[in-house]
Amino acid sequence: MQEFAFELALCAHLETSEQAVLGRQLGTQVHGRRVMDVVRIEPGPAFDERTAITPESIPSLAIESDVGPGTARYWKDAFDCHPDTAEQVIERAVDVGFFERERRNSRTYVRQTTRYPDWFDTVVGIENKPDLGRPGDLETQLLTDVALSLVDKIVLATESYVTGAHRNRIPPEVGIWRFDPETGDREILREADQLPVDEAGIEILDRSSARTEIRVASAGAIERARRRVAERAYGKGWRTYDLPDCEQMAPDDAGLPYCPWKGETVRPATECGPDCGGYCSGDAPSVDFDALRAQRSPWEPDPAGRKRRQSGLDSFL
Question: Of 46, 74, 195, 308, which has the highest C-beta tally within 10 A?
Answer without folding.
Answer: 195
